[in-house]
Specification:
Elements (H helix, E strand, L loop, with lengths): L1 H12 L18 E10 L4 E10 L2 E10 L6 E2 L2 E2 L5 E8 L3 H13 L13 E7 L14 E5 L9 E8 L4 E6 L5 H8 L4
Antiparallel strand pairs: 1-2, 1-10, 2-3, 3-6, 4-5, 6-7, 7-8, 8-9, 9-10
């Protein structure tokens, strides 16, 4: 079984996107892109996406669970403040690939090295940055995610999530470098 698992991982790794291939160095942003390796529409109206990428010949990844059909957040060129969707996105570990991912994120973000991805289910409030209803299987959509929106845990952070189920990719893009410390903390296993 171990041999078959490593063979499967090796062949799967050949088809994965490079984690930092979407970098635009001019601004110093550390944007991440993943291949969707598994997707499932749940009865709850959410999509469960297993997302993986390559980084320096290693496979990294995470699981993203995201609500389908979120209403537009931009209506008549104005922000619709009623479009904030609490608990619309959840990020979960997939094991060793997620542990490797948080190690790389902590390095990219210039933070102390962290080697264990949280086992906690992290839920985010999502704001759709779209002008149409986000039926995810129809293409690429943009969301701004908020964690600890009322800063009750001192871990307030914002990040952009751009799923593209049609083309099989998910982007996690930085909103602002000031959130790097909290992003690493919330994605890390608490000791």
């Amino acid at each position: 079984m171990g041999f078959l698992s490593s063979l499967f991982s090796f062949s799967q790794g050949n088809n994965l996107i490079e984690l930092t291939s979407q970098q635009e160095d001019a601004e110093g942003w550390q944007d991440l892109i993943f291949s969707i390796t598994e997707k499932e529409k749940l009865e709850t109206g959410f999509w469960r996406l297993t997302c993986k990428a390559k980084y320096e010949n290693q496979i990294v990844g995470l699981k993203i669970i995201i609500a389908d059909g979120l209403p537009p957040g931009i209506v008549n060129e104005e922000i619709d403040r009623t479009s904030f969707a609490p608990n619309a996105v959840e990020i979960q570990s997939i094991g060793k690939e997620s542990d490797k991912l948080i190690e790389i994120i902590s390095k990219l973000y210039g933070q102390p090295k962290t080697t264990e991805f949280t086992r906690e289910k992290l839920t985010f409030t999502a704001f759709p940055l779209n002008k149409e209803k986000a039926i995810l299987e129809n293409g690429r959509f943009h969301f701004k995610l908020f964690f600890d929106k009322n800063d009750e845990r001192n871990l307030y952070a914002e990040i952009f999530l751009n799923p593209d189920l049609k083309n099989g990719t998910v982007e996690l893009n930085e909103k602002d470098q000031e959130y790097r410390v909290n992003m690493v903390k919330l994605l890390s296993e608490k000791k």
